[in-house]
Amino acid sequence: MKNLFLKQLSFAITGVVLTLTACNGGSTNSSSTDSTTVHTDTLSGDTLAGGPDQVKPMGPAPEWGPGIKPQMHAVIEKLASYKDKPIPELTAVEARKNHTPTDAVMGLMKENHIPMPVFNVDTAGKEIPVTGGNIHLRIYTPKTGNGPFPVIVYYHGGGFVIANIDVYDASAKVLADKVGAVVVSVAYRLAPEHKFPTAHNDSFAAYQWVVKNAASIKGDPKMIAVAGESAGGNLALNMAIMARDKGIAVPKHILAVYPVAGSDMNTPSYVKNAAAKPLDKPMMMWFVKNYLNNMAEGKDPRINLIAANLKRLPSTTVITAEYDPLQSEGLMLADKLRAAGVTVDNKNYDGVTHEFFGMGALVPEAIAAETYAVDQLKKAFSK
Length: 383
Hints:
8-stranded mixed beta sheet; 33% helix; 383 residues; globular; alpha/beta; Rossmann fold
């Protein structure tokens, strides 16, 4: 692909940047502040602007990803350069201090003088009660217009164990800014301090709060969608299922980005991508051991979504990545949803890894996926 095309593509959506760390760390989830927290690789006051076409890897493609895209490869290299201990060798508390793919993107932006995006949104925090405590919500509201706006309830990734709403701040901002929606990002409690099904129950409490209080945050209670990445993709699907089963307002749409959707770690993509980065098979095993009370719970349909009752769910968008252990179960989930009569649209993106979705500042495939997700949400809200 020519450099000029890459540069034009990379700035096609301003602000589609960084988000993801569904599987590679971040600080704890208990913060009730509403400012982004990342490691120290942030942009300096450099005035020479660069572009993602100049971001290139230093070494050969990894054995597990022979067709990895150059910018994606550079992010993986940068992440490895921090020399953090592998997450499966750490406690959950230690793992939350590891660098994330977001940190790697930020580092590359600094090195290549790529400016930070500007998002046309305001943020505010809200504490809500849940069984056994409170959780924090971060609410992103478009600065343009008075509403009522459609609402997206967003669930971050991290295997139910690591990462937080700070790490995923840009993802929520992209959806709020580009869809023109209020986004409510949910800081559900993490394992192993809070075992299954705490994250699921916290997430549903947040969804119920939004349904009841949408008008108070400039939202339209009849125009609510759910979205999430990795573990958050699992939670987004579960919110629609729980809403259906409990007789409350079902969301208009589900956006599931490489969701945790199965319990079989011997699928074709698990075999092919067992050593992929930033998510590999040992890390997924570590997440499961930390979140579940016992391994038998892996068969619970809230975890093993491909075995759940998927009938009468809203239209759903599923995004998957080539170099991702979760690719097979994401594709299988899309097929199972169709078989259950659900309207499904899904796309797989080649040459990229788990976590690519929010990397639009550097990775052209991420811009394509983000644009696709935004378009799907807009379409659902227009009906």
